[in-house]
Amino acid sequence: MQNANRKSISIPWNKGKLVGQKLPLKLKEIWEIRIKLQLAGDQRGLALFNLAIDSKLRGCDLVKLNLNP
Known about the structure:
This protein is mainly alpha-helical. It has a domain at about 25-65. The chain has 4 helices and no strands. The longest helix has 14 residues, at about 25-40. The chain starts with a helix and ends in a 7-residue tail after the last helix. The model has no long low-confidence stretch (mean pLDDT about 85). It comes from Methylomonas methanica.
């Protein structure tokens, strides 16, 4: 009976996290990512990154793309 009087305390899932829209990437950050992908030899990642930046696609839309060779 003592436990019935206590309220269960639930912590919100987003407590302490940043919510909302993120700031856009700065030009310096874009070039840093491009150079790291080039040095790593990740051509697929570089192509997807360039496509996303050039077309301003969101990540969920970008992964839905089908490319035929």
